[in-house]
Amino acid sequence: MNKLYHPDRIVLFGIAVLFGIIVTGCGSGEQLISTWQNHEIRIDGDPAEWKSTLHQVPDKKIFIGFKNDNKFLYLCLTTNDRAKVIQMFRSGFITWFEPENGDYKPFGISFPQPNVFSDQQQFKQSNQGVNRESSQEENPDNIMDNMIMQQTQLEIVNKDKYPLIALPLINKEGIEAKLSIKDNYFVYELKVPLAVGNDYSYTAGVTPGNTIKIRFETEKWKWLKRIT
């Protein structure tokens, strides 16, 4: 497969493994191209500005999208598969950034953090969507909202998952994260600095037109995505 060159955008391709599902495409795997933005994306948990750029994981109710401007890489993941969402909260969820440029060290963003809700709050898992009718005591909406509210910080971890620093969800490092429930879908948004300037301690280590590998990992399920 010939390498595509997009001076402004980031081309995504590789083998994707998300929640035990392998997605492959041409050559070394599925190819995606991040959408170029001439303005900063709001990390507000609202997927409205992502709708035209989300790609569905085949045969699964999981959607992923990537965008970039000249300073930041943005990603959005949505799903209404509640079993997968609960696994993210139980085991934690790490987004790994592994630049091909050896000048930058790989790192992960741990968010949501694991084990932040009580075992007494467990509720029945189904694939009927994040929201479904239930009794007032077991209302999944209330439980999910409570779990999201408890997520007040993210952690930067090294390749061995050793915590390097804990940050609030909006911070001076340029990394922003947001969780929400919109229209029966769980929404995960993330913003990470590109390798532009020296303003931030942790960057994706990639500039538009170059390559980075991104992995999404929980305790049991992993997703690997390559970005060029």
Percentage of residues assigned to helices: under 10%
Tell me the β content. Answer: 35-45%
- Give the overall shape, derived from the CA principal axes: globular
Radius of gyration: 17 Å
- The beta-strand count equals 16
The description of the largest β-sheet is: 6 strands, mixed
Structural class: mainly beta
Poorly predicted parts? 1-6, 11-29, 122-128
Helix-strand topology string: EEEEEEEEHEEHEEEEEE
- The end-to-end distance, rounded to whole angstroms, is 13 Å
**Mean pLDDT, nearest integer?**
75
Number of helices: 2
Describe this entry's structure for a reader.
The chain has 228 residues and is mainly β. Helix content is 9%, strand content 36%. The chain has two helices and 16 strands. It has helices at residues 82-91, 140-149; strands spanning 11-14, 16-18, 21-23, 30-33, 35-36, 55-56, 62-68, 72-79, 94-99, 107-110, 153-157, 163-168, 176-182, 185-193, 212-217, 222-227. The strands form four sheets. Strands 5, 6, 7, 8, 13 and 14 form a six-stranded mixed sheet that branches. A six-stranded antiparallel sheet has the order 12-11-10-9-15-16, with no helix packed on it. β7 and β8 (72-79) form a beta hairpin. The longest helix has 10 residues, at 82-91. It starts with 10 loop residues before the first strand and ends with a strand. Residues 1-6, 11-29 and 122-128 have low confidence and may be disordered.
